Amino acid sequence: VATQPLQAGVAALTHLGVIRARGADAASFLHGQLTQDLLLMKPTEARLAAFCSAKGRMQASFIGFKRSPTEVWLVCSRDLLAPTLKRLSMFVMRAKAKLTDATADVEIFGLAGNAIDSVAGGTQPAWSKIDFDQKTVVHLPPAAGQPRALWLAPAGEPVPAGPALD
Prior knowledge:
3 helices, 5-stranded antiparallel β-sheet, 166 residues
């Protein structure tokens, strides 16, 4: 069986969006709503998290990380973003947290192989996160031996260097 050669490059991930949680209680609020402890998460980490129904059925999954002590980003599928945001917002009540759809403010790209080098100076362990000014790189587990990462930056930032991938 012939295998495809591994590809390095950059791919626009237009199917993903971002829920932004801001406020003094953002991490503690999400800690009570998601399957991941975002409250104790270090600023250099990212983690998978899920939002579940009362019966324990997963409603949405995220890559979550802190942009600051009072700001948490949840990267999720765009088709689930609006209903998930609406449902999570129902539970904010008195928490000092505001949830918004930040998708229009953020560009998300996938980086593969040596395309990571031009942005983050090389690969790092999976689920490590590095901030560069307003940009964030989240290192993902490799796929077929190929290093991968997410690149998130304010809309309008130049696209990372590398061949375009589908």
